[in-house]
Amino acid sequence: MADKDLWISLQNLNLGLERSPVKLSIEANRKRDAAHRLSLVVKGLHSSQNPAGIKIMMPKIWKLEGRVTSRINEDGTVQFFFAQEHQMLTILDNGPWTYKDWLVVVDQWTRRNSPDYLRIIRFWIKVLNIPDDSKEDRSIREIGGVLGHVEDIHIQQPIADHAGEVWIRIPIDIDVRLIFARYFSIPDSEAPVLIRFIYDKLRKFCSACGSLTHLAATCTFQAQGTEQLQLPAPPQRPNQDPPPSNLNQMENIPHSPIEVADDTMGETVGSNINMDTSDNQNFNEAQGEFMDTLNSGDLQDKINATFVIREIGSVSVPAPDRGTKRKGDAVNEEGEVSTTRRKIQGQSSATPAKGEVDTPKPPLPE
What is the model's pLDDT at position 10? Predict the structure, then answer.
């Protein structure tokens, strides 16, 4: 044992440190740059995202299994090497990406000397409640500016089957606390307008402070001077049923609010840039019913309650429309209806309807 310790200590001698640094040749640097040019580096934001799991699962999530090579770096990041440049660019364009329901940062190796290397996640963010006359480039950029630099704007004009939508793409620093709602003073509006932000492909995060690295159950952030946010209910159209809500179902669960958020939703929010208009309207209308006076922490819990994500393998898809019945339920209900219908028809043939007199028929002549 002593000999082994002695051998290890001999290997750690600093002999040679006094000599001048050795500079690698230009050819060696050129070959290294060429070998790494088509590579992406991935880093998890949560301790549960082990590098070995990222190395195995990300090619499957990208649908590139068997077509990329990878290695785990000493700093805990995972580097993926692509054969074609379009594959790498597609991964960057279709982000953000998640592993174990937590976001991962994906960056190009060629950006390794940039100050924001492995610190930026680009989100497509849907902006709700912008007045129609403010849906122009300058106003949208100023509204999105509260979140960060607006890189791109997509305005979908309303058509017969879909309402108009406004999307912005913003690079978000992984240490920034997300913002989901802000009031804006807009000309010709008597009161400040509440603008809401829906982050596409956002999964687990902290509903107490907006961090991307932990859940509310472990949050230590103390908000200074938290103000109550007044959320007006949207106007109800005539002959319109009240919007569905998951809150009534959640109230029956015997958990604390934090446990409900962690167990039921996993503090998960998601949206889809190709979401149907009916889904968007249900979401917008459902919020107005229960958002009267909420502080910032309660607000985000209620937001999360309106979004439910289910996992299918490694791909996240929005849950079905609230209020729709499963196929088996529909069959059972149809069977009950037909059974009831048969009973009613049988009763109507044997028993006179209410308010009618059972008059006997006259005897036939002999």
Answer: 75
